[in-house]
From TrEMBL:
GO process terms (BP): base-excision repair; mismatch repair
Protein name, per record: Adenine DNA glycosylase
Family: Belongs to the Nth/MutY family.
GO molecular function: 4 iron, 4 sulfur cluster binding; 8-oxo-7,8-dihydroguanine DNA N-glycosylase activity; 8-oxo-7,8-dihydroguanosine triphosphate pyrophosphatase activity; adenine/guanine mispair binding; metal ion binding; oxidized purine DNA binding; purine-specific mismatch base pair DNA N-glycosylase activity
Keyword terms, alphabetized: 4Fe-4S, DNA damage, DNA repair, Glycosidase, Hydrolase, Iron, Iron-sulfur, Magnesium, Metal-binding
InterPro entries: A/G_AdeGlyc_MutY (IPR005760), DNA_glycosylase (IPR011257), Endonuclease3_FeS-loop_motif (IPR003651), HhH-GPD_domain (IPR003265), HhH_base_excis_C (IPR023170), HhH_motif (IPR000445), MIG/MutY (IPR044298), Mutator_MutT (IPR003561)
Pfam families xrefs: EndIII_4Fe-2S, HHH, HhH-GPD, NUDIX_4
Key word Thylakoid present: no
Cofactor(s), by name: [4Fe-4S] cluster; Mg(2+)
Amino acid sequence: MTNTEFQSRLLNWYDQNKRSMPWRDCGDPYKIWLSEIMLQQTRVDQATPYFERFVDHYPSVNALAEADQQDVLKVWEGLGYYSRARNLHAAAQLVVDDFDGRVPDSWDDITKLKGVGPYTASAVLSIAFQKKYAVVDGNVIRVLSRYHGIDEDVRSTKTKNGIQEHADELISEERPGDFNQALMELGATICTPSNPDCGSCPLQDGCVAYKTARTEELPYKSKKKKRPHHQIGVGIVRNQKDQVLIALRPDDAMLGGLWEFPGGKQESGETFPDTVKRELHEELDITVSIIKPFMKLDHAYSHFKITLHAYLCELEEGKPEPRTSQEIRWIAIDELTEYPFPKANRRLTEKLMNLNKGQQELEI
DNA sequence: AAAACGGGGAG
DNA sequence: CTCCCAGTTTT
């Protein structure tokens, strides 16, 4: 199949079958940029409601640039990879300061923005500005590795570079943005990881994997390491004013800019109450007594898993003084909703708020 | 080149 | 349970 045939079959299929998305065909570089950041390692269905809410809060680059980071993170809460939100916020301020409030339309300028790597630069430049840059994401890797019968490990840089060259070679001159979106749309809806719908594929004729019945084994990926599992003890410390103690995670840490109940990893030979007391003493220079177990929950991150053991605590001695220059705050239970929390901690705040509403159990 | 970085859904 | 997702940054 010639490149021209590849393009026309793919684009015709796309014109007939593309899904509706709130940022699609809007022509607004800000919304297209925002959507591409949200879609990094995130499915369309998961990102869409966040996109709508984010645009309601911040309809323009200027609105985003003027916002407080805490408010931006609150809108982003639950979507994960929070450095995306922090970087996007900082990048919006750079766009206002250095680019007159307009999303850059050149490779050299747009890649100056935090959080904009080769994929996002290509996506925004092609979709918003009709420039001929080919995207390579997980979908394109899958479609082209099958189409060309590439059986090298697609996790390796060399293989990805080869796929980038194929994409550069194939991309449409006239409709580069639609071509990119079409290839990704095909990967998301037809050329899926398992059980691809080859009968509906416009590229079936030229597909090596289809012709050799290897769609199930391509793309080849080396195995990922299994994730360690940690036991975490955390303290929900209450004072006489019925407030609880929360701590802000530093910007350069995992979950940076979000709040949490203080705690840490269990050490060998420790009971969980021991862990909570030790961590709160080390991190905040306070002595607490354990009142009772509050909640136990499991949570999985991208590279490790935790079981979180939360205990209701009472401040015994000392005034909390964070040692690692992180901010701490005493807040009422019904204020918990105003702060951005990571998912595992949000499960704790939800139970706290429910119990508080019912006036039960929470009394010490 | 490899690891860090969230959360949700599918199989 | 594992794998994957419209990847980027840091080490």
